[in-house]
Design goal:
The structure holds 2 protein chains of 2 kinds.
Chain A: H1 2-28, H2 33-42, H3 52-61, E1 65-70, E2 78-83, H4 85-118
Antiparallel strand pairs in A: 1-2
Helix pairs in contact in A: 1-4
Chain B: E1 4-9, E2 12-17, H1 18-35, H2 41-60, E3 65-66, H3 68-78, H4 81-84, H5 90-104, H6 125-132, H7 139-150, H8 154-165, H9 172-179, H10 185-217
Parallel strand pairs in B: 2-3
Antiparallel strand pairs in B: 1-2
Helix pairs in contact in B: 1-2, 1-3, 1-9, 2-3, 6-7, 7-8
The chains are: A mainly alpha, B mainly alpha.
């Protein structure tokens, strides 16, 4: 049973961070979902590709993202996503939270290490 | 020899074997069901179709016909709709979806009870049941049947009845429908209740019939 819970926790952690990463990838330049997937896969952030599409849709509905169509040489026109102004604000506050969390985790981990060394 | 179907997947044309077509169709339908309450359902589905088309092109490497092998590979990359469900979007949409179906007065789980020919001791009844309820190992269901046989002898009779009335999963779409989505505890309870009620009604009908026959014989 414990490994089931572990998977669950991992998924929960990934989920929160996924939003941050998708937004920050798109904030660099207008992106085609396949390019986003490739970056996320490199970072080992998504397990199955299908996860991305509902997420993009949700971010778009929240007006954090918008998309426009671009012609493609090899097929039908492609959707390119770009970040909106409110998306930028959202992203920077997510980043702040991430920094805080990151510090908190590092701090608590280093405390544990110190205690181990002292004892 | 295999029959192929021509399809337009996200704007890309493909020739696809009939069995593989069924599989893709079922897969996309299961995604549609999953997101049916969300406004963006069609859009999500279209985006996924486009991505699947790209993946097919990658996996075909110049071959012209999509077969079960490519479909399997691509579905594995895309993942099952339950796996996208880590998204918060899933919760409300699922709830609304269920509310909608309550209004229509029918509950569509996209799942059907079949006998599983791939994992059978006798006729695949138990493995079909465990697939239906998302139990990993059919041995538990088999054990229950065996126990019922010892305590009261209902096991054998129930098994024979199920053998008779439950169809065997023959095609791949049958097998997909057999596995379906993992049902929630609530759904299982509801389903079981329904089926017990139905069975109860039937048994009392049989009882009446039997009784009236008896009376006539006297």
């Amino acid at each position: 049973m414990s490994d089931v819970k572990l998977e669950n926790t991992k998924a929960q952690m990934r989920k929160g961070i996924l939003e941050l990463c998708v937004l920050s990838i798109i904030s660099k330049e207008a992106s085609y979902p396949t390019d986003i997937i490739n970056e996320l896969k490199e970072a080992k952030l998504i397990v199955v590709e299908g996860t991305l599409y509902p997420l993009l849709n949700r971010l778009k509905d929240a007006s954090l993202l918008e998309y426009n169509w671009r012609e493609s040489k090899s097929g039908p026109p492609r959707k390119y996503y770009q970040i909106t102004e409110s998306g930028q604000d959202f992203l920077s506050s997510l980043k702040e939270t991430w920094e805080d969390l990151n510090q908190a985790v590092n701090y608590s981990q280093s405390k544990i290490k110190q205690n181990e060394q002292n004892s | 020899m295999n029959k192929t179907v021509s399809i337009n997947l996200g704007g890309y044309p493909f020739h696809i074997n009939e069995d593989a077509f069924e599989y893709v169709h079922q897969y996309l339908e299961s995604i549609r069901n999953h997101f049916s309450a969300s406004d963006g359902c069609d859009e999500i589905l279209y985006d996924i179709e486009v991505r699947m088309a790209e993946l097919f092109q990658e996996h075909l490497k110049g071959r012209t016909i999509v077969s079960m092998k490519e479909v399997d590979e691509v579905v594995q990359v895309m993942g099952k709709p339950e796996d996208f469900g880590a998204e918060p979007l899933e919760q409300p949409s699922y709830q609304q979806n269920r509310d909608k179906s309550y209004k229509k007065g029918s509950i569509k789980t996209g799942k059907r009870l079949f006998r599983d020919p791939d994992d059978q001791k006798l006729a695949g009844v138990c493995s079909g049941i465990s697939a239906y309820f998302g139990i990993d190992d059919p041995v538990w269901v088999r054990l229950i049947f065996v126990l019922f046989t010892f305590f009261g002898g209902f096991g054998v009779m129930t098994y024979l009845v199920l053998w008779f009335i439950v169809p065997e999963a023959v095609t791949s779409s049958d097998k997909l429908a057999m596995k379906g989505e993992p049902t929630t505890v609530e759904n299982i309870a509801k389903k079981v209740e329904e089926e017990i009620n139905e069975l109860g009604d039937k048994i009392s009908e049989w009882g009446k019939e039997f009784g009236s026959k008896k009376k006539r014989h006297r």
